[in-house]
């Protein structure tokens, strides 16, 4: 077996032709060296390394260490202090992609890429071009961009990125953040959200197939540019990352701009042979198998993560047994009924916002099974982890997801359809509430539906 493989390798070497090299313009060579370091190593390779470690279920602490290392902490800390006046950069993740560490790290990689490109240009100034390295570079960008779009697409096709929340029906529009308004607008139409995801998945599929890379890069550019513009317009904290995705798309499209222009002008464009990564038959076979296995493995992991998110906090998550919006019609504490005063400014409980305080409540909203949202008399909304046990007929409000700090405990009963009584205590004070369920069809956003024929515009 080994002898046969060795013979095939020798045969491949005999058949390996010299790659026809067209001399690149000196500026093109310098720019390639720069973007290879910045986009190829600084961004795409780092993203792929993190994705692979997560897919292999490497401990999260190790994944975080690798991510921190890729941000070049020594240089990033120095630049942060010397140039931007940041005494200490926080590397702890917050869910935002626009933190100080990401911005300063991006600047650090720009400087590193410029220095490496300068040194590389001096040491390798006689090389006329980098055709094979360019193909490897494009492969890394395709993989990284494709995986990013798989994630963006699957969390929309299996909606967990933007999820319709009942609380938005009673929240004043002006109280929403720009990001909240964008999320709510998209989640209001699940078919629209799914359609956005399908477009992103189509771009990813075209990127992974070597013969449709240009089409994939064009569609990726449109998809990522829309994401980037929305993030800018609605202050979504993923501006840096989405902008980098746009750059990757542009770099993949750039070599084909001339050919694309000729096609759009109706001119004939001959096929352009690609530089092979491997010229021998064995090398091509091994690469094809390895590429396919790695792509399917990472794509499968992304799809599974999105499927899991869809069922845990997306539109497929379990709903509360008391699902609905409930208006508080009576509120009694320590035997004394509290009137429904809109300007109720009773001081909150000592735990601040993570409390129910002694104030009368306006509404209680049961949506997902793991929490509850209360609306105070001033219309402010506060979410709490909560557990509803339909067997014991109890509701427990907690101050944290562990359930250790209990804010309120109630027994509940439903004397009739659309009625709910909660009897228990909040922070040690006896409380009894009577609530009426709101008919969700009273909201046009829920009840309006779809109409092919509209004699009069319905815009409220």
Automatic annotation (TrEMBL):
Record organism: Nocardia arthritidis
Transmembrane feature ranges: 30-53, 101-123, 135-155, 208-233, 245-265
Protein name, as recorded: DoxX family protein
Protein keywords: Membrane, Transmembrane, Transmembrane helix
